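Saturday, quiet lab. Running sequence design on the structure tokens for the scaffold JK sent over.
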């Protein structure tokens, strides 16, 4: 079972063993890419393919929320309305990085915890704290703060920042800089690379929009039997490739079962 809290347009991979894939929970649509093609699926949709096993890429096309995918052999039949499933025991469960679990607490008197054993966080784990009592730091103690809520300074207040972590700007953001000395900059480039293969059907094929995309390199597979048409006009012969600097959705048409190789560079 795949279960993860995902942001809009977040992509992640997992390894599927089986021949069916069932969307149990999502916020809108999810884009599922297999080694044999890709699918846009909603909650309750199911794909059955005897050769589906392998690397699966999932992209959340809806709002931020929990994405839950069931997979296995045969065909999945979800419980009908009103049916109940009783679970007597479960194996140990480990929550992966980025996953969340909602817990319903039965109404009971408040519980006070006076002491707790030392707690160590694993790499990349985090704790979200909404409120804290007054804290006094001892000599030479240091607190590292990575994120802060919006802050407004009152009249005559000042904030001194000795150092800051690396800052990354989103698309469209800018900072005005003035300097008396020459200012050296580096050309912008991508921070991530992913590859995928689309297989043309009677309806063609689509490659989802991605606001974090720098560019894509689109290549018509050398074994194609006909030209691939991009966006209804631009054609690619077998083996031909083209670099496209756009974040929008890309549409392709051509001969059924012909393939397009796509290399996407993200910021």
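Result came back. Writing it out in full:
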């Amino acid at each position: 079972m795949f279960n993860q809290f995902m942001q809009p347009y977040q992509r992640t991979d997992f390894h599927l063993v089986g021949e069916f894939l069932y969307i149990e929970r999502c916020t809108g649509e999810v884009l599922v890419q297999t080694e044999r093609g890709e699918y846009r699926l909603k909650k309750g949709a199911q794909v059955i393919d005897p050769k589906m096993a392998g690397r699966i890429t999932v992209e959340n096309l809806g709002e931020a929320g929990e994405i839950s995918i069931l997979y296995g052999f045969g065909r999945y039949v979800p419980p009908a309305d009103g049916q109940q499933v009783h679970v007597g025991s479960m194996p140990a469960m480990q929550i992966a990085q980025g996953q969340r679990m909602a817990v319903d607490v039965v109404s009971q008197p408040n519980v006070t915890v006076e002491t707790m054993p030392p707690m160590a966080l694993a790499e990349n784990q985090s704790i979200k704290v909404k409120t804290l009592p007054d804290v006094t730091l001892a000599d030479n103690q240091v607190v590292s703060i990575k994120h802060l809520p919006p802050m407004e300074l009152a009249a005559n207040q000042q904030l001194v920042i000795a150092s800051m972590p690396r800052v990354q700007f989103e698309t469209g953001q800018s900072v005005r800089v003035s300097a008396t000395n020459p200012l050296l900059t580096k050309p912008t480039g991508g921070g991530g690379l992913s590859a995928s293969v689309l297989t043309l059907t009677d309806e063609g094929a689509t490659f989802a929009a991605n606001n974090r995309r720098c560019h894509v390199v689109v290549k018509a597979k050398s074994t194609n039997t006909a030209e691939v048409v991009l966006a209804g006009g631009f054609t690619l012969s077998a083996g031909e490739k083209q670099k496209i600097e756009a974040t929008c959705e890309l549409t392709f048409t051509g001969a059924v079962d012909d393939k397009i190789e796509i290399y996407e560079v993200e910021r």
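Notes for JK: DSSP finds no helices and 16 strands in the chain. The domain at 192-266 is CATH 2.60.120.770 (Jelly Rolls). Ask whether to fix the surface positions before the next round.
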